[in-house]
Amino acid sequence: MVNWSRIKGILVQExxxxxxxxxxxxxxxxxxxIGLILFGFIxxxxxxxxxxxxxxxxxxxxxxxxxxxxxxxxxxxxxxxNVWSRNLSNMFVSPLTIWDYFIAxxxxxxxxxxxxxxxxxxxxxxxxxFNLLSVGMLNLLIYFINLTIFAWTTGILILGFxxxxxxxxxxLAWGIIxxxxxxxxxxxxxxVLPKPLQTFALIFPPTYIFEASRQSLNxxxxxxxxxxxxxxxxxxxFIIAIVVFYFLFKKSKDTGQFxxxxx
Amino acid sequence: xxNILEVRNLVKNYGSxxxxxxxxxxxxxxxxxxxxxxxxxGKTTTIQVLLGITLANGGxxxxxxxxxxxxxxxxxQRINYISSFNSLLGRISVYENLIVFANLYSIEKPKxxxxxxxxxxxxxxxxxxxxxxISSGQRTRVNLIKSLLNGPELILMDEPTASLDPDIAxxxxxxxxxxxKTKNLSILYTSHDMAEVTRICDEVIFLDKGKxxxxxxxxxxxxxxxxxxxxxxxxxxxxxxxKYLKNEKLxxxxxxxxSVIIDSKEDLIPKLIFTLSKEGVWMTDIEIKKPTLEDFFxxxxxxxxx
Lengths: 263, 306
Hints:
The complex is a heterodimer.
Chain A: H1 4-20, H2 22-49, H3 56-84, H4 88-92, H5 98-128, H6 137-165, H7 172-175, H8 180-183, H9 195-201, H10 205-219, H11 224-255, H12 257-260
Chain B: E1 3-14, E2 17-28, E3 32-36, H1 43-51, E4 58-63, E5 66-67, H2 72-77, E6 79-83, H3 94-104, H4 110-121, H5 136-148, E7 154-158, H6 166-183, E8 186-190, H7 194-200, E9 203-208, E10 211-216, H8 218-223, E11 227-235, H9 238-247, E12 251-256, E13 259-265, H10 269-278, E14 282-289, H11 293-301
Parallel strand pairs in B: 3-8, 3-9, 6-7, 7-8
Antiparallel strand pairs in B: 1-2, 1-4, 4-5, 9-10, 11-13, 11-14, 12-13
């Protein structure tokens, strides 16, 4: 059963860690800001010779990509702080349930994402004349939700691997998500990818969302075919992630790894 | 007597290795039960299974009469855990850590509860320090506060004094003794330190290779070792004493020509002293070394028991 006080406990812990960890402040807002500046100037440069919306795909892709990166990072790395401090088993010998933990991580990750994406969107508007809202308010919401579900899915999977294998696979927590940036054609049209990779890219929900967002940027439309496909794939992968997580969690407790999952 | 914890036929295997082998025991209300055994005996694994962070392969665990596997949250809400092998989050302050756990245990007035415990354990000055920056003795006190936040009826303590210097360990044991008296706490206590187990435990469960090999009071366990050592300093002819001891077929060793150490069954010592005296041996000093829990532990560890 889910309990609000326990969720609040994890949220409060997350707040304290964020407040006191320079690493988190560098990995989240600073990296987002640096990425925005880099992509912003490249967009400006490309816009000199290309008067279409295409150069703006870079900024659009970057800002939407940050939704995935920040959400997934937040979900996975918070667990690592507890592993490094040998506090993870302390938390799970309290009545905390895995769903309390998931829900808290989901709320925390989305909160951070909203704040950072809002800030870089405003900066992008004033510095690079790129208005994220030009894809449409409703579209933006739909894209945000889909990308967030995908980030939660990867976050839950990585959590499962952290619980199962501990610090041995810690670099997955912040590294593996970047595989998806080129694979899902975040900042360029899908057609740019080689044919076999295009087919492969279509198994990932964000590919549809990034494609749909570029269409929205061009003409304000909503590609419901892409949105629906992305949503169905997201639900499917989310369920798979939960099943895999439970398998890894059970295995971790069965082998004694979870109790040893320290430092 | 009402049992807080009832464990029946608990089994934990790691592949072909059996870490916990069909053990059963109870922890009654208000009692301190010691869990002793050599390294690898299965003490920590048992505690981990009792807390649900390691899965059992068989058996049942009941807290307050409720099946733990079916009522995990209810049971964990009423118990707590402290171990020298775990820490709280190092980056955040002591107070922040305690607030987090107060929420995890759904404490109604967390600030008030923390304040009460902080005053009791006299750690007001540590509250705003990062957990990382305080000493191991201070951390143990903070961990103990964490373990009392929910007003538990049972605390599982896994070697809480390991890595503490003797003075701090003694203070911690005094605190545990006081808590037990004032709050009628039940405690399951694992340790390698025989003196502290003898001091605070009502009953000791001895584990070896995952099995319970003895269950008794600390005194009862030491009584299972019948041999004691008698050291006599005498003012008499050494040959006379030696002849007598050889006749009685006792193990002995002369330390000097006027002092001898004799191994004997504890209940035969009075007779031995009396007979030596009757033989005209003038004893100037008598020292009896009774078996301790440590002797029992060593016997088990060296596989001499039974």
